[in-house]
Request: fold
Amino acid sequence: MRRRVIAGNWKMYKTIADTRAFFSSLLPLVAGEKNCDIIIAPPFTAISTAAEAARGSNVAIGGQNVSWSKEGAFTGEVSASMLLEAGCRYVIIGHSERRQFFHETDDNVAKKSLIAMETGLIPIVCVGETQEQRDSGLTEEVLRRQFIGGPGALTQDEFSRILLAYEPVWAIGTGRTATPEIAAAAHRILRRCAGEKFSVHHASALRILYGGSVKPDNIQGLMAQEELDGALVGGASLDPKSFAALVKAA
Ligand code: PGA
Reply:
C-alpha cells in the first residue's frame, strides 16, 4: 500500500504574515493525521517562516521551483541547497505554469530533479497534457515524452525517491477537474512508463499525485481510485480549513 500525499502549491500567493496566520490555523486541524504525508509549498520568501511554523509538526515544506545549477551568476534563481537550508524537504519541478510561461523543457526537469536529489530534496515532478493535445489524441504520447525526458533520465535509485504529479493543464485553476476515471487512466500510462524504463517494482512503488482543481467536494471520488496516491492542490490549499478537509479525505 502506497502512502498518500496531500501537497499544497501556493503559487504566487501569501506574504510572510499570511503564512504565519495559515499555519496557526492549519496545524491544530491536521495534528492527529498520521495516514498521509502533508506538504505545503509556499513562495520562496515565505519558506523560512513556514518551516519555522511547521517545525515539529506533521507538515513538511517544499519549494515551487529550483535552479538546475549548484550556484553561479544566475540572477533570480534559487539553488537546491538554499531551499534545503531554508527548511524544504521537497521541491515541485516542471509545473505546467513553469513549462508554459517560463519555457521549461523536459531537459530542465531532468537537470533540476538531479540536483534536487543530490542535495537531499525530494522532487515532485509534474507532467500533463494540454486540452489541445488531449483533443488531438496525443495524451499518451505527451505523457510518455515528458516522462522519458524528465524523470526517466534519473537512475533507478534516484527514481525510487521521487513523487510524480499528473496535472492535466486543462484542469489547473479552471474548476474543471479530471474525472476519477480520466485521472486513473493517465496514472496507469505513467506507471507503465515507469515499469518499462525502470522495473515493475519501481512502477508499483511510485507515488503519483493528481492535480487540477482538487477541492473538498471532489476529492473523495478521486481518492476512491487506487491509482491515485494523493493530490497536488493549488487554489484549495490557500484556505486552512479546505486544505485540512483534503488531508482528512486522503
Ligand atoms: P489548482 O492547481 O488546484 O488551483 O487547479 C493545481 C496545481 O497547479 O498544482
In short: The chain has one domain: 4-249. Residues 4-249 form a domain with the TIM Barrel fold (CATH 3.20.20.70). The CA atoms of residues 96 and 102 lie 9 Å apart. The two ends are 13 Å apart (CA to CA).
